[in-house]
Amino acid sequence: MTAKSSDPAAIAVGWWRASQPYRHDGRPNPTADRAALARLRRADLKAAMVDPATLALFRALHLRSPDDLPRVAVTAAVLATVREDDPATHPARRLGIDPADPNGRPRLSPLRFQRLMLATDDDERLTLFRRAVHLAEGRINVRGLAEALLSWTEDRRRRWIFHYYAAGAAAPETAPHHDTATEIEDATP
């Protein structure tokens, strides 16, 4: 996390990368803190809030209010469970329904996904997001996940629903144009 950034998700991604035992090229990461990752993977919300690694992320985000600490703790504890970044796939898409496989099951069941969408309590969000990362086999879009964890807004939930159900994949690229007035005239004897 050497670069200064005002983008909270980019800061969280940098924090996650710095904490990983191996770099993206497979070489060992000398800045990794395996003990912190292990603590955060097991921590409940209160334990995550007092963990030095969480407080380092809090400071890196330039936050000042104690009201922000729970969401940063959720972010740190959930990101600690991610093993591999999947930047090309939206996190909800990785968990959701594959339109190419109509008989396939989503990694995260629709009922669990619904619970995640309705979660407002930080303890519940911590549990549900950890479970989602586990079901994604630890491979998920770190930036997209960090954005959601740091700012779980109605707009963000709407986008997650869209990607989970692959709503954009259901529509053709260009919708055929139908002139219903002409079709009705042509059908009239």
What fraction of the residues are assigned to beta strands by DSSP?
Answer: under 5%
Instruction: Provide the helix percentage.
Output: 55-70%
Can you identify the CATH superfamily? CRISPR-associated protein Cse2
Q: What's the helix count?
A: 12
Q: What structural class should be given to the helix and strand makeup?
A: mainly alpha
CATH hierarchy, class: Mainly Alpha
**What is the number of beta strands?**
2
**How are the strands ordered across the major sheet?**
1-2
**Overall number of domains:** 1
Reported for the largest beta sheet, the result is: 2 strands, parallel
Detail the topology: elements first, then pairings.
Layout: H1 8-19, H2 34-42, H3 45-49, H4 52-60, H5 69-79, E1 84-85, H6 91-95, H7 110-118, H8 122-135, E2 139-140, H9 142-150, H10 154-164, H11 167-170, H12 180-187
Parallel strand pairs: 1-2
Helix pairs in contact: 1-9, 4-5, 5-8, 5-9
Describe this structure in words.
The chain is mostly helical. The chain has a single domain, classed as Orthogonal Bundle (Peroxidase, domain 1). 56% of the residues lie in helices and 2% in strands. It is built from twelve helices and two strands; from the N terminus they run H-H-H-H-H-E-H-H-H-E-H-H-H-H. It has a two-stranded parallel ribbon. The longest helix is centred in the last third of the chain and has 14 residues, at 122-135.
